[in-house]
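From: lab user (bench 3)
To: helpdesk
Subject: output format question, protein + zinc ion

Hello, I'm new to running complex predictions and I'm not sure whether the block I got back is the full result or only part of it. Here's what I submitted:
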Amino acid sequence: MKPQEYVRVSLLPAGFLTLPEHFFCADQHDKSIKNLVPSMSFLLEHIPSRTRVVFDLGLRRDLSAYPDNIQPHLRTRQPIQTIPDVCDSLNHGGLESTDIDAVILSHMHYDHVGTPSRFTMAKFIVGYGSRHILENGMNYHSAAHFEKDLLPSDRTIELPVQNILPQFTHPVEITTHFTNCLSSFSPGGQQEWKALHPFDNVIDLFDDGSFYIVDSPGHLLGHLNVLVRVSSDRWIYLAGDACHHSRILNGETGMAEWEEDGRHVCIHTDKNLALGTLHRIQNLKENGFQGGSVQVVLAHDAEWYQNNLKSIFPGAVDD
Ligand SMILES: [Zn+2]
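Helpdesk reply: Thanks, we reran it on our side. This is the complete output you should expect:
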């Protein structure tokens, strides 16, 4: 019997920022409640191919290197800690940023993109519409500014249009995309989205059932998650910003919504789509995946971080 292919998952601390809880949790009406939360990155080592992938790059070590139009927003997220950043965390386990083969970015918000220029050998894998956002921005209330030249055009792979298109409340028209194909990174892997219960769109990155990129629409155009097999009966689901607090994930409260300039706003660009994505993740957490249990990790879950310090690289989840 062929041995089960699997992925080694390590936590890479990549900075902390302060988030007001009422932006996220529907049951929080006290606007003074703020939490210092991590913006977590992960090293995903695909054992059979010895391929090293980093999921999200967290906060930029040098905050002044964010563009001027992001600076006012940063002041609302203080205190912010950026040391160690994702590169420091790789160094801590004996790797350099140049040892990384690919970076998957869950989405284009400043607190997930770090400093891409440090990863000079990596391919960047991003969701459909990411280039459009970088070039055109979004008419959106929070962290509305993006960097046109964030990613290297010649090494960025924008995933293809979904197999089943998410139904956006406000249809989005995408006119620009990076031209690279997934085959330039993993020639033997799946190149197109496929439905795989409970998801409409996944890509089996190495075509061995160990590493899935999951389309997870709602938070921001092109939002991606990953689902990786860490052992014969355990999976880890990295949920990015699918939701921002374990109370939402556990169903104890809903996603916050409030009035701004006479319209309903939410931290997610499309709340209905975000709710659909959340329900699929909750289903996964409850019922498992392909006979194994699934641990769901939110990018900003401070409690998970504190409970999993042993998984900091060179440690790993499940060690
Ligand atoms: Zn975000």
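A quick orientation on your result: The chain has a mean pLDDT of 92. Let us know if anything else is unclear.
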